[in-house]
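Researcher: Sequence recovery benchmark, item below. Answer with residues only.
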């Protein structure tokens, strides 16, 4: 009989609900335990999704019987500590994006995974969606020739609230790490690491980047043009330009259900990939596949890739003047004194 994977969730906010809904549609997956800073909240969440164990602190989850894997859905700033806490107790981890606030934290998480011989993956769910799989497939077949440029954006209009995760600098707020990570992820997936970067951010009244614009240059004159925002809705499209044609991943491209293939001299062709869930089921299936195969990480979204991604985000942050003083203070990412964009007052 196939093994049923018993999942736990740490941090019961918005995304945790969507994830719990998707656990219900994955074969051989079950929500087993939930952990919140509030027992009342954990019990209410557990009741909604039939979790057997509900805890009023994250640490209590560590002693949960028959727990196979934990999904971490807390704000960015606590991903590293929560992941390492689980890994040190030999509990496999799927951790929300961004994997952590900076590369130093991600290196510590990867070391904990290796030292404990325990699985770890970033929950960059877009990587596992069928439209992205098809995009890679079209590129690998050479249909659009060599990819020479990527243009992608992700912007939405959030209500300003200095105490919310999105606008609170102490919680890792701002557009780049929340949504800009998706365009940066796509550029890394398709073009690799850039040789030079230009980036500008507008830092809002709560000291987080409310918009960020990025220009990334690669060998052979390849280019990525990326944009993120939490103060305005953008087209949320991704264009992949090749020497023989273009792929447009249609809005919202980070959760796409269609793409348009435009090969030079031919009629455009649409491909549709509807899915019957919130879309998180694909990353859940990947985690279970990796656990069955006793892997430390996924080949589709490896530790190495996640480290490259956060290093790239660190570099963009330094260039654009985006800082998280509490988390960055032990890294090379420290606030330059002359940076006029940045103020702690
Ligand atoms: N993959 C995706 O599509 C996607 C979408 C949205 C967000 N995310 C990622 O998921 C993470 C959580 O996002 P979210 O939108 O679910 O956030 P959220 O609604 O604010 O929930 C975060 C949860 O983390 C816990 N938490 C722990 N310390 C906290 C603190 N100091 N302040 C506030 N909450 C704290 C809380 O759970 P308890 O009260 O139960 O402890 C809270 O409900 C972020 O890293 C984000 O980037 C991913």
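Model:
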């Amino acid at each position: 009989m196939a093994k049923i994977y018993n999942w736990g969730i740490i941090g019961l906010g918005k995304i945790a609900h969507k994830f719990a809904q998707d656990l219900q549609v994955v074969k051989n997956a079950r929500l087993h335990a939930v952990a919140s800073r509030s027992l009342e909240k954990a019990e209410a969440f557990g009741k909604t999704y039939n979790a057997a164990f509900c805890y009023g602190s994250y640490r209590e989850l560590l002693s949960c019987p028959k727990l196979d894997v934990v999904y971490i859905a807390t704000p960015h700033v606590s991903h590293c500590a929560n992941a390492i806490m689980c890994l040190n107790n030999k509990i496999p981890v799927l951790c929300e994006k961004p994997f952590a606030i900076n590369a130093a934290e991600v290196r510590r998480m990867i070391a904990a995974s290796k030292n404990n011989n325990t699985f770890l993956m970033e929950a960059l769910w877009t990587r596992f969606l069928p439209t992205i799989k098809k995009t890679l497939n079209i590129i690998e077949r050479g249909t659009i020739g060599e990819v020479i440029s990527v243009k992608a954006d992700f912007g939405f209009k959030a209500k300003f609230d200095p105490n919310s995760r999105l606008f609170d600098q102490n919680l890792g707020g701002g557009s780049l790490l929340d949504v800009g990570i998706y365009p940066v992820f796509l550029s890394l997936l398709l073009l690799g690491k850039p040789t030079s970067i230009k980036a500008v951010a507008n830092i809002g009244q709560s000291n987080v980047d409310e918009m960020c614009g990025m220009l990334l240059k690669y060998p052979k004159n390849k280019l990525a043009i990326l944009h993120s925002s939490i103060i305005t809705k953008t087209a949320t499209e991704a264009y992949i330009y090749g020497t023989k044609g273009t792929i447009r991943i249609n809005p919202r491209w980070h959760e796409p259900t269609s793409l348009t293939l435009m090969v030079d001299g031919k009629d455009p062709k649409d491909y549709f990939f509807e899915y019957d869930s919130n879309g998180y089921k694909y990353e859940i299936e990947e985690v279970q596949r990796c656990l069955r195969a006793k892997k430390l990480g996924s080949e589709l979204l490896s530790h190495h890739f996640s480290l490259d991604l956060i290093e790239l985000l660190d570099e963009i942050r330094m260039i654009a003047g985006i800082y998280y003083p509490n988390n960055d203070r032990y890294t090379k990412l420290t606030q330059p004194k002359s940076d006029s964009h940045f103020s702690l007052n």
